[in-house]
Design a protein that fits this description.
Elements (H helix, E strand, L loop, with lengths): L4 E5 L6 H12 L3 E3 H10 L3 H12 L5 H12 L8 E4 L5 H13 L6 E6 L2 H10 E4 L5 E3 L18 E2 L6 H15 L1 H8 L3 E5 L4 H14 L1
Helix pairs in contact: 1-9, 2-3, 4-5
Bound molecules: adenosine-5'-diphosphate.
The site of adenosine-5'-diphosphate has 18 residues, from helix 2 and helix 3.
């Protein structure tokens, strides 16, 4: 049986969110993205969002207690009963240990961890070049997948903008946070025999196909 908890690991810009969305659609299981949930809390100016905002804009990680709390709450919802994808969580060893305890308490088996690998130069291009439509959310990249007209969405003419944490200084900090706090998780899951590496330098369709084929057989 396919593992109920699937964890998408990988540095910022690896394409975790894009791939998690495809897998989520294919298997009809929810995609739980801590980045998206935190951005929503920031938009809604909740107390939690106020704490998260400064950290996120600086490219630093949001404290473990906050992130673990929102994940635990989300996973308790009924649509997670058949399984779920964790996108961008866990990102620290403390979060990984929290996931272990949570899965055990809920009687779910060990997670499957998909580590999406992309080298440093390509990551920088993806992150610094990323632009998002302010109307429909479509994502472009000025180097790799530019819109037809500068700064404007092909679909609806919406203005394209940059995520505040895609500014250069924040990107440097996010990559540093990944190296120091998240990369050790590769070893953590490898030792448990739960890790599968995926080449994330290819186009999104090729990666999604490989992931879905693999998960169909898992
Ligand atoms: P990316 O993977 O490209 O950095 P995300 O949308 O996953 O983008 O995350 C954006 C920001 O949200 C992170 O830089 C961090 O501040 C915060 N965040 C997301 N997930 C976590 C997490 N599991 N633990 C701590 N902070 C997180």
């Amino acid at each position: 049986m396919r593992p109920q908890a699937q964890i998408f690991l990988g540095p910022p810009g690896a394409g975790k969110g894009t791939q998690a969305r495809e897998v989520s659609k294919h298997f009809s299981i929810p995609q739980i993205s801590t980045g998206d949930m935190l951005r929503e809390a920031v938009r809604n100016q909740t107390p939690l969002g106020l704490v998260a905002k400064a950290k996120m804009e600086a490219g630093e990680l949001v404290p473990d207690e906050i992130v673990c709390g929102i994940v635990e709450e989300r996973i308790s919802e009924p649509d997670c009963r058949r399984g779920f994808i964790l996108d961008g969580f866990p990102r620290t060893l403390a979060q990984a240990e929290f996931v272990d305890r949570m899965l055990q308490a809920k009687g779910k088996g060990a997670p499957l961890v998909l580590d999406i690998k992309v080298d440093g130069d390509l990551l920088l291009k993806r992150l610094t070049g990323r632009r998002t439509c302010s109307v429909c959310g479509e994502i472009y990249n000025i180097y790799l997948n530019p819109p037809k007209a500068d700064g404007v969405c092909d679909k609806d003419g919406g203005k394209l903008g940059q995520r505040p944490d895609d500014e250069e200084q924040a990107i440097r900090q996010r990559l540093l946070a990944y190296e120091t706090q998240t990369r050790p998780l590769i070893d953590y899951y490898q030792r448990k025999g739960l890790l599968r590496e995926v080449d994330g330098s290819r186009g999104p369709e090729a990666i999604a196909k490989e992931l879905i084929d693999f998960l169909e057989k898992a």
